[in-house]
Amino acid sequence: MKETRNTFDHVDTWVFDLDNTLYPHHVNLWQQVDKRIGEYVSRWLNVSPEEARRIQKDYYLRFGTTMRGMMSLHGVSADDYLAYVHQIDHSPLEPNPAMGAAIAKLPGRKLILTNGSVDHVDKVLERLGLSGHFDAVFDIIAADLEPKPASQTYERFLRLHDVDPAKAAMFEDLARNLVIPHQLGMTTVLVAPDGSKEVVREDWELEGREAAHVDYVTDDLSGFLETLAKQKS
Question: What is the pLDDT of residues 30-46, one digit of tens each?
Answer without folding.
Answer: 889 899 999 999 999 99
